[in-house]
What we know:
This protein is of the alpha+beta class and 136 residues long. The chain folds into two domains: 1-93, SH3 type barrels; 95-128. It is built from three helices and six strands. It has helices at 83-86, 96-123, 130-133, and strands at residues 21-26, 31-39, 45-56, 59-70, 75-80, 92-93. It has a six-stranded mixed beta sheet with strand order 5-1-2-3-4-6. The radius of gyration is 21 Å and the shape is extended. Keywords: Coiled coil, Cytoplasm, mRNA processing, mRNA splicing, Phosphoprotein, Ribonucleoprotein, RNA-binding. It comes from Coemansia reversa (strain ATCC 12441 / NRRL 1564).
Amino acid sequence: MSFTPQFFTTAESLVDSLDKKVLVILRDGRKVIGVLRSYDQFANLVLQDSLERIYVGDAYGDIERGVFIIRGENVVLLGEIDGNMEDTLPLRQLSVQEILQRLREEAEEKARKDKLRFQLLRKQGFSVDFADNDLY
């Protein structure tokens, strides 16, 4: 009698990740790191000692969140973190204030570039004001 391995594509496959440090990427783009303590059939998750990690360029900052409950429909990706590899990443850790300031500066720069791009498109005859000129 031979044994055929079972591969699970449901929340049951999370059993091997219990009590391990995981990274969860949420639908809104946030990244949460914590110890997976519990889950259910809908992939609702409970993370302990969690933190929200914000990346800007070659730097990151962590905001402590404590116990974090995540509704399963908001999970895009979940993966275990290798503690040895985490320490070798070529990223600098910044304070929360520094990383939030960099995030604001990055958003302002993106808004400035978008404004210039929209002006160029408007000069070429394209409509970029979708709210007022959307013909659907």
